[in-house]
Amino acid sequence: MPTTYKNPVYPYRRPPELDVQDVRHYPVVIVGAGPSGLTAAIDLAQQGISSIVLDDNNTVSVGSRAICFAKRTLEIMDRLGCAQPMLDKGVTWQHGRVFFQEREVYDFNLLPEEGHRVPAFINLQQYYLEEYLVNRADALSEQINLRWLNKVTAVDSQPSHTVVTVSTQDGDYRLSCDYLLVADGANSKIRDMLSLESKGQIFQDRFLIADVIMKAGFPTERWFWFDPPFHPNQSVLLHKQPDNVWRIDFQLGWDADPEEEKKEENIRPRVQAMLGADVEFELEWASVYTFRCRKMDNFIHNSVFFMGDAAHQVSPFGARGANGGAQGIDNLAWKLARVLKGEAPEALLDTYNTERQHGAKENILNSTRATDFITPKSRISRLFRDSVLELAEHYPFARSLVNSGRLSMPCRYEDSPLNGPDDVSLPAELRPGTPAKDAPIRLDGQHAWLLNQLGNRFVLLFDGRLPTGEAEARAPELAALLEAQPDLDLLVLGPASLARLPRTTLIEDADGLVSQRYGLSAGAAYLIRPDQHIAARWSECHRDAVVQAINRSLGKQLAPHSHAQGGRYVTA
Ligand SMILES: Cc1cc2nc3c(=O)[nH]c(=O)nc-3n(C[C@H](O)[C@H](O)[C@H](O)COP(=O)(O)OP(=O)(O)OC[C@H]3O[C@@H](n4cnc5c(N)ncnc54)[C@H](O)[C@@H]3O)c2cc1C
């Protein structure tokens, strides 16, 4: 089969620990250089924390895996300096169509609203994402020590530290760390080594992935067929990827023989029946997959943190695997950085589990529901499914019941113990716990984006468009706030006089969308966490309230962690 992509081969370097007697200690060791492990290392590096990343391989992922990357993932990647190559290479899409038998039953638009830097979705092969992440990690090589062909073979997890044994072509060595981040994938060996489980459901169905290269006239949309004439009684999904590669997923049923189905002579007739007899294509990749939805009961074990597929796994419908993983790392990195620097109690880390259990449950619920709709388990479910599809063609109410995969959405931590005060007169969709929304702005007279001004630190978005003289009168209070909170920056809509404050950026509301989306009026403010989630908001904000909300966001009101150690910041 021809391939458009040549996997890079990354070099193995002899680890220095092989030549010393002592077990060296580091703040953070990460197992796995897939999307989750690399993202974690980059996020931590940007927040001043060094890590060692160990991977048992020496390349990015082989073959066809994730392709759909959601808006929130792109925003996270933008904060990490990785979004631009993804946007440049990826195929942007936001429309989808659903077909039942031979007719279209409805279409949808995931982002009907203008005024966002990144689109609703891009399609990009996972190997490109990983390559861009490796490039970014290499650019941060002072903080990220990326070790290829270093396989973790044993783990000794204690409440206060972890020791890992690493196997290389030159022999074995051991590393000790304050925190071990485990991102070794769905079949996590580290999870097994610690006798931990990921619990859930295996689905009895098989899907064939056929990636074909063709110059086709299909629009760049997500097309999903239920029971189409060219593949009766099953479903089919079509997505365009870069390099003229098209991903086709054929549902096969549980009884299908994976080895037979992967053979080119069996795939070609399926694809040809779908595309038409005269369409020329080359088969680039074929695999048959089954899937599961499962998660660990607790993502934290002593000072070992599970992330990505190692912590939670979903079926591909809804593209919630890597996208959910990115949101988990976004949640953990800022907390871990602050605990390691002694700026937050270790109890803050427990909220990685509480907030992300909520995210994982939401992802599992959505992908389980989609899977149940796509592969009905009984005659009655099938009847219901087909009736909904019939009705959807004519009646809008039935469209909300059609489920060909509820695509990955940003998680909202609305019940988080870290949330501060809410002012319910402000827009309901931006309640504390929700990720901040983008909007176009002007910065130094140039076009820019709101989200690019947020993240990595706490930010107070303050509407300083107060009556003449009042903004200046508020300046000493704001200056005192900034002095007392070194982790806080100020983002001001309003008068130039406030730009003289330290760590303060003045923005203009280019198209009025910041005011509109955030419901801003003079004196109002949003406190935004380092992961761009809203921590608290006020129609009229005052210094003490902001200080209390930052302390709350840092977990200072939480019960002490059972093995709390304060700031155990150890440099490598
Ligand atoms: C068919 C399919 C389609 C998908 N489509 C989508 C999609 O469209 N959108 C989406 O968001 N997600 C999708 N996913 C899910 C996505 O691929 C995963 O969620 C993602 O790869 C998880 O990343 P990870 O870093 O957690 O794990 P992995 O990608 O599995 O990476 C784990 C890494 O750990 C390394 N490793 C393992 N053991 C060790 C060890 N002992 N020592 C050192 N290193 C080790 C491995 O070599 C690997 O590099 C899809 C998955 C499949 C199978």
Low-confidence stretches: 563-572
Strand count, sense and barrel status of the largest sheet are: 8 strands, mixed
What is the gyration radius calculated from CA atoms?
25 Å
Our measurement of the CA-to-CA distance between the termini, rounded to an integer number of angstroms, reads: 45 Å
In terms of DSSP E residues, the strand content is 25-35%
What general outline do the C-alpha atoms trace? globular
List how many beta strands DSSP finds. Answer: 28
- Small-molecule components bound: flavin-adenine dinucleotide
Helix/sheet category: alpha+beta
- What value does the average pLDDT take? 93
State the helical fraction: 25-40%
